[in-house]
Structure formats: structure tokens, C-alpha cells
Design brief:
The protein is α/β, with parallel strands linked by helices. It contains eight helices and eight strands. A six-stranded parallel β-sheet has the order 5-4-3-6-7-8, with helices on both faces. Strands 1-2 form a two-stranded parallel ribbon.
């Protein structure tokens, strides 16, 4: 009777409920990473590079780095002015580099390697858009908190555990259908076509 569930994902309660567990005994919870407070958030936003997109994660299947590079290909074909910087390493990194080279995206997509968290935050402060492509394998995804706190427009998959808690679509971020390149493209084109905050 005294056992309760703290849900560090918007989907945790439903997952446990399938087994008949924690009915009416679950509470919202989340990660609360340290974030920098800005005296003038508008100045931070004004100093960002327009059309700059940042992706940071391990290059593994459920993080879906392929969505980012496929997005770059579609944006290039559609004539958009943008750059995509990708931070991280992992088993899919070499295949992503090959995809970029084969599809003539080297002027648009840059692989920055790994870097400590404080340097990732510096990159967030420079970039206009943060792309978060994970699927339901992402329990919470504290990088969402970090990107939002550094003034990025967050574009995130609907299966990431923190997103229903943190993001009101087209208000403080944008949500696309997980692992769906068409949904992702439509969402980011909306941001690029209507850059007003």
C-alpha cells in the first residue's frame, strides 16, 4: 500500500498499467539538470546563427541519427539555407559519414566528435534549432531541458519520455511523429519558413 511510482517518462504509467501495477499510485517526475539563467534571453537568441541545427547523442539505432542526415538531404534538395552539426560517436557514425559523402552533403553536415557537457552547452547557445530524434528507448532525455534552457527551438520525437511533460507543440517547441522522416521534414520546414519566436 505504501509503494508508489515516480514516472520519469510520460509513458511509464501506461506501461506499468498494462501489468496491473501502480493503478492510481503514480506521480509525474523528471530530471532537473543544472541550467544557466540568462539576464537577457532575447540577446542570446539574437546572437544565434539562423538556420543552424544541432544534434547530439550516441550514434546508435534508437537515437536515429539517420533521420538527421536524411533531413539534411531533403532540405538541400528543397533549396533551404541551413547547416547541421552533429556531436557524438557510436557504431553508426561511419555509416552516417558515408551517407553524407555519397549524397553530397559535406557542405551542410558537420561531425564535431565528442565533447564535454559544458562545450555541448556552448554549441547549444550558438545554434538556432535542436533536433532530438530518439524513439521510446529514450526514458527522459535531459538534453531536451538543456537545449530549451539555452534558447534553442526544440524539435523532438513524440516518443521521448520528457516531451509530453515539457513541450506544448508550436508554443515552446515542436513535436514530430517518431521515426517518421515526412513528419520531421514538415515540422522543421515550418520552423525555417516561419522563424518568428
Amino acid at each position: 500500500n505504501n509503494l508508489f511510482l515516480l514516472c520519469a517518462s510520460a509513458y511509464a504509467y501506461a506501461d506499468y498499467a498494462k501489468s496491473g501495477l501502480f493503478k492510481n499510485k503514480a506521480f509525474k517526475w523528471g530530471y532537473f539538470p543544472t541550467v544557466k539563467k540568462y539576464d537577457d534571453i532575447e540577446e542570446l537568441i539574437d546572437n544565434k546563427t539562423s538556420g543552424s541545427i544541432l544534434w547530439t547523442a550516441r550514434f546508435i539505432d534508437w537515437k536515429h541519427p539517420e533521420l538527421a542526415v536524411k533531413l539534411a538531404q531533403r532540405l538541400k534538395t528543397a533549396g533551404y539555407s541551413f547547416k547541421l552539426d552533429m556531436i557524438g560517436e557510436g557504431e553508426l557514425l561511419n555509416s552516417m559519414k558515408s551517407y553524407v559523402k555519397i549524397n553530397g552533403l559535406s557542405d551542410y553536415v558537420h561531425f564535431l566528435g565528442t565533447m564535454p557537457n559544458n562545450q555541448v552547452h556552448e554549441q547549444m547557445r550558438k545554434h538556432d534549432i535542436f533536433l532530438f530524434t530518439s524513439d521510446k528507448g529514450e526514458g527522459w532525455g535531459a538534453v531536451a531541458n538543456e537545449a530549451m534552457s539555452n534558447g534553442c527551438v526544440l524539435i523532438a520525437s513524440d516518443e521521448i519520455g520528457s516531451i509530453p511533460f515539457l513541450v506544448k507543440n508550436k508554443s515552446n517547441g515542436l513535436i514530430f511523429k517518431s521515426n517518421n522522416i515526412n513528419s520531421l521534414c514538415a515540422t522543421i520546414k515550418y520552423v525555417l519558413d516561419y522563424p518568428q519566436r
